[in-house]
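User: If you would, consider this record:
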Amino acid sequence: MLERYPPLRIMAAHGGGTAPFLAGRLDAGWRSDEQARRFLVRAPSESLKQLYLDAVVYHARALRTVTDLVGAERVAFGTDHPFSIADPVANLSAVGELSEPVRTAILGGTARQLFELRSL
């Protein structure tokens, strides 16, 4: 889908789930399978960089993995509201452990860019 429709914007929940942690394995499978390379012209980890991911991972180290994979400009703050697991304070704490430019992107910059929001 990402190759066929490059302008498509996809937001994946929970930091992309296991995708950031399996990116290397996905690439290894792609490299070892000639048929997969016929359908995907580039490594899966490169395609993952087209996704937007939310920052609902509750752990700074996991969040660093997410931002390292796709870039902070592709990660936006989120919550698990209205579910009981929602803990925005813990999520904000994880974001707070990251560098200032990464925090700025996650806490609003990415959303402004993704949704084409203008400042008042």
Notes: The longest strand covers residues 52-54.
